[in-house]
Specification:
The complex is a heterodimer. By secondary structure, chain A is α+β, with helices and mostly antiparallel strands. Chain A has four helices and seven strands; from the N terminus they run αββαββββαβα. Chain A is globular and about 65 Å long. By secondary structure, chain B is α/β, with parallel strands linked by helices. In chain B, the strands form three sheets. Chain B has a 23-stranded parallel sheet that branches. In chain B, strands 3-6-9-12-15-18-21-24-27-29-31-34-37 form a 13-stranded parallel sheet, with no helix packed on it. A three-stranded mixed sheet of chain B has the order 36-39-38, with no helix packed on it. Classes of the chains: A alpha+beta, B alpha/beta.
């Protein structure tokens, strides 16, 4: 019996150890998670972004701008397949693949690091946000790549 | 009797006000009692009027759009009904005093008091509780927040707002406020020229949070038991003088964290019992002088590129790890005087109070810790000790060369400490003399009896 238990426990451990091979994002714990670039605690969970590497390493950021800054210093993570990048839908908090997300941008939009880029899971939601705020523009992945961040100016 | 007192108070106020204000010859005192509407009183008031709020609970969301003074008698409570701001101020030169303000909404900018494009208002001795943000000042200047008490609601800090949040504008004075259980005690968001003195901030995420702000003076504040005391980011011209920054023991807590900031003065502060006392990352032109940095897990930390940072006459005492250094080479003294490091082991042969050998900050172990935080487990183990010793014999072994060429042999005296010491030493002296006199008396008496 104990042996069986031991084996099933072992399997469980192995399974949970393998879980990250699917490169899924991890929930933010505002009590302990801080942005890897700017050190700020991630209090505004819906603005958080994550990079999950193929080795299962998870890098957390408080603002999409910090993630971009990190990617510029860690160029190897930009190669295809090495890492997945996630942003969250600002309203629902769902994790969205960066390449599929749409963003609303205006320098006046509030974000933790004042980058003014707010992410959404689809184009309609981003457009609605821009309309509700009465300012800004919608960026898709290609436009975001060309975007000049506040810390680059 | 109470009524008489009140009338006297009101007349006194009126007289005071009439003699100070010029254009208020017709100023009126309006009394609002429980069951009446304060907003209605505001709406029918004229600029310069006084409104006195009698004790009671007023369930209202007020908009103050006239230059008036509002004073709450003890027990006057304004309850925002968990919706929006409790009080919104859009007029200048108003005066709000002695109110209990509670129950704002929970949206990002919902506040106990929201000052919107309004200047020279005075918010004094109010008690703000169960509010998202305490006082929010947007696009305004020269407001004074004096001796208010601010707490948020029971919740995790990530769901609360800030004690005092300032967005754009500046030239405010924040004095003597007591702020606890909020997200960030005082948040500087694109602000300029602000003085923050003698405030007490505790049990929050960051004591003060500086973002993109300039020319801020924080003096004699007491900041304790938050996650981080002062969080300074992307700012310039920040002065910290004579503050106490203590007990930030959170796993990722700092006394003071300076990130991408230039022109910082840190003078005569007490930075004690923090996970990391003072951390510099991309700091430029900082001067750290006359501080006590003691009893921290890590006293001093450098990360990334730091330029033109000067340290002089600081006392590094009783830190578990004195310094954790990574990044560029740096010199830690100002050329004349260095700092007191309690782990410095060398001699002062010339007798000038300065050690002949340079103090080298950080060790190879520190740099390893940066990469492998878990190696903290091997702290002061024989192998690490041996390693550190070997490194000190071969100074070029480590990568960054951070050193104090003028280490002090004795702790640098903090200004104003000396007189205190004298007072203290007098009392035990007198007590001792009395004891000796008494014992002599006992001996003499005892002998006589024999």
């Amino acid at each position: 019996m104990i042996k069986k238990l031991g084996i099933s426990a072992l399997i469980l451990v192995l399974l949970s150890g393998c879980q990250n091979s699917s490169m899924e994002p991890e929930e933010i714990n505002p009590e302990i998670d801080v942005c890897e670039v700017c050190n700020m605690g991630i209090a505004h969970k819906h603005f958080a972004t994550e990079i999950v590497t193929e080795d299962g390493e998870i890098h957390k950021f408080d603002d999409i701008g910090c993630m971009d800054e990190f990617l510029q210093s860690e160029g190897s993570l930009n190669e295809a397949g090495t890492a997945k990048k996630y942003v969250r839908d600002m309203e629902s908090g769902e994790w969205v693949d960066l390449e599929k997300a749409y963003h609303a941008y205006h320098p006046e939009f509030w974000t933790p690091m004042a980058n003014g880029v707010v992410s959404f899971k689809n184009k309609e939601r981003a457009e609605k946000y821009v309309k509700d705020q009465g300012m800004g523009e919608v960026l898709d992945y290609q436009a975001l790549e060309k975007h000049e961040w506040s810390w680059e100016q | 009797m109470k009524f008489y007192m009140l009338t006297i108070k009101m007349t006194l106020f009126l007289i005071l006000f009439l003699t100070i204000g010029h254009n208020s010859a017709s100023a009126e005192a309006i009394k609002v009692e429980e069951g009446e509407s304060i907003q209605a009183a505001i709406d029918r008031s004229k600029n310069g009027d006084f409104i006195f709020i009698m004790p009671g609970v007023y369930k209202e969301n007020l908009v103050i759009h006239k230059t008036i003074k509002i004073r709450g008698e003890q027990g006057a409570i304004i309850d925002g009904g968990a919706d929006g701001n409790v009080i919104t101020i859009t007029a200048s030169n108003t005066h709000i005093e002695g109110l209990t303000i509670q129950n704002s909404g929970t949206q990002q900018e919902d506040s106990g008091i929201y000052i919107k494009k309004a200047n020279e208002n005075t918010i004094k001795t109010n008690n703000l509780k169960d509010v998202h943000n305490g006082i929010y000042i947007a696009n305004s200047s020269q407001n004074q927040l004096l001796e208010n008490r601010i707490t948020s609601y029971e919740s995790h800090f990530s769901k609360r707002g800030n004690g005092i949040h300032m967005f754009k504008g500046g030239e405010h004075l924040l004095h003597g406020n007591e702020i606890s259980d909020v997200q960030d005690g005082i948040y500087f968001d694109f602000t300029k020229d602000i003085r923050v003195t003698e405030n007490h901030i505790l049990n929050s995420r960051y004591g003060m949070h500086f973002m993109f702000s300039e020319q801020i003076l924080a003096k004699k504040n007491d900041v304790e038991r938050n996650i981080t005391g002062f969080m300074v980011m992307d700012s310039k011209g920040i002065k910290f003088i004579e503050n106490r920054v203590a007990d930030h023991f959170h796993f990722r807590g700092f006394g003071i964290l300076i990130y991408e900031t230039k022109d910082v003065l840190i003078e005569r502060n007490e930075i004690i019992r923090n996970s990391t006392g003072l951390s510099l990352e991309h700091g430029v032109d900082t001067l750290t002088t006359g501080n006590i940095i003691g009893a921290n897990q890590v006293g001093l930390e450098f990360k990334g590129k730091n330029q033109q940072n000067t340290f002089s006459e600081n006392n590094f005492i009783g830190n578990v790890v004195q310094s954790k250094i990574s990044g560029d080479d740096m010199r830690l003294d100002d050329g004349l005087k260095g700092n007191y490091w309690d782990d410095y082991r060398s001699f002062d042969l010339s007798g000038d109070g300065i050690g002949e050998e340079a103090y080298k900050a950080g060790s190879l172990y520190d740099r390893l810790l940066q990469k492998q935080p878990y190696w903290q487990f091997f702290f002061e183990s024989p192998s690490i000790m041996l390693w550190t010793k070997a490194e000190s014999l071969f100074p070029s072994f480590g990568s960054a060369n951070v050193y104090d060429a003028k280490p002090l042999m004795e702790p640098a005296a903090k200004l104003g400490d000396q007189e205190q010491d004298q007072e203290k030493s007098l009392l035990p002296g007198i007590a001792g003399a009395l004891f000796i006199l008494f014992s002599m008396l006992v001996i003499v008496k005892g002998r006589k009896q024999l």
